[in-house]
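Record type: monomer structure entry
Structure origin: computed from sequence
Chain ID: A
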Amino acid sequence: MEGRPDPTARRAAAIAEAGSLEAALAAGTLAEIVAVPLAEAVILGLLRQDVRKYLAIFGHGNTALGEALRVYEKAGVTRTWQFRNEVAMAHAATQLSWQYGEVPAVLTSIGPGALQAFAASLVAASNGVGVYHLYGDETTGGEGYNMQQVPQARQGAFGALAATMGRSYTLHTPEALREALRQGNVTVRHPFKPGPYYLLLPINTQPRMVTVNLAALPVRSEIPPVACADDGAFAAAAVRIGAHDRIVIKAGGGTLHFAARLREFTERIGAAVVLSPGSTGVLPDDHPQNMHVGGSKGSISGNYAMEEATLLIAVGTRAVCQSDCSGIGYPRVSEVINLNGDLDDLTHYNRTLALAGDIGSSLDRLIAALADRPVPVSAGRRAWLDACALKKREWSGVKRDRIAATVPIDPAWQRPVMTQPQAIEAVASFAKRVGAVKLFDAGDVQANGFQIVEDDHPFETFTEAGASYMGYAVSGLMAAAIAERPAYTIAFTGDGSFMMNPQILLDAIEHGLRATIVIFDNRRMAAISGLQAAQYGVVFRTGDSVAVDYVRLASAFPGVLAIAGGETAESLLEALTAAYDHPGLAVIHVPVYGGGDEMGGMGAYGAWNVGNWVEDVEARYAQTVI
């Protein structure tokens, strides 16, 4: 039977013929006031916000919405991609919005599926990425428990749960659609801190008819930057900058869209710049003032700049524990200038001169203020940059030594295999050569990765350091199969992270993905093994006794090119070249070292308030003034 009644198909056809909902309204081929099922009204409302792509897993909790999407896809108005795991699906949606700027809608049924998508939305919430999440929900009539609902006798249990992560709205009353979409619009398109928006759709309200004024539904937000209006604040910032020789700029993820202005500001004041894991490329890697990453893993140069500076200029950073060493990363800093739009992040440190508002505007105003009050290049400031340059050369030497190190015999593989730095450097160099985007998974691969990559521009690397969600990179690859202008992307993943979401092997073939996955297999949770060894001198339950044949596993999926990467950089390069030439998904398996030899990883250079380090870190934190 051919689905829905004719009015839905006619509305979809009118929009398709006109080219957009707005054009159909203007032409009069689509009435402004319509009586439609709520499920269709949601689709129409999201169209007004340029949301046309749905990543879906259908179940009994969203059949009405699925039927409406079938009709609209048939007309060519929307497109739906079927997935097989809600976590993987939510990750792909997050990457689509993060990397490509296309806000999609994640669509799940009620209960376990929604819980899985909700868990994965931690990535969007942590990294400030706008995504719609549409979940089926319990019926509103109170006739008894619905299968798979949160089993409590309370109203809106799942909506309350979702509201702990972001903003949620339950369409208990279909007529509230306008307000629900208004709140969603400002959440997913927030100018400086977007996030996931959870729209809960009760099973029984989805097919209910509702009268909607289509012209009154909110259109996509276009909010101009909001700037700090106090000229005195920038003059005061210039005074602070002039009072210090040892200045460090901590460039967080919020700086990625303002790289040119940050560079101009950096060079004008003679500051050392320390990156977060997610901001590599905001200054070119070889820029003399780029000290690389700093924090609990960090680098010799990045952590030196943090430890010795007396003025911190925090730009677009939210001071995550690993980024500022659980609050003790700046022991000599006595004053802070903070540029941020979010008031909580803006005021994280004491003794802060807060420059609230758009970061680009604040950088421009700071540069102008410094033109009026030029900062002299003092002997002290030259000495500071010279000292930082020495540490950067030391760090570069460590990287060279680790990459050139003699390959050790791995205790699990029982033979010499490449180390993580050696294998990651080989893949990262290949990615730079072919212009591929690098997408890093959580764990040891991620930690070594942000220490090794040498990006010259923002967005050459995406590393999900906000939530460190295992399996994110391989799942996020699917964004390239959905994006309007896909970029060739290489996922850097560990064996543990890959096994979290191997659905990519099926989804990639189903949806025509061209990309490469490199599995760095050390048969252990190396990041945690290393932490256990550093803290307690012994490793406990973080290794695997099962050697998985990943090449054979991936080969079971027709269309996937599965390759052994071998045990040398040369063999890995051959595999990468073959993968790049493949028209679909390629999987390269690389055994890597995971033992106790310090040459097997890039090392750690900071502090972290975990395990048996807690007493020391908290005692040092009590002595800090910022």
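Annotation 1: The CA atoms of residues 40 and 68 lie 6 Å apart.
Annotation 2: The chain has three domains: 6-143+155-216, 231-395, 409-596.
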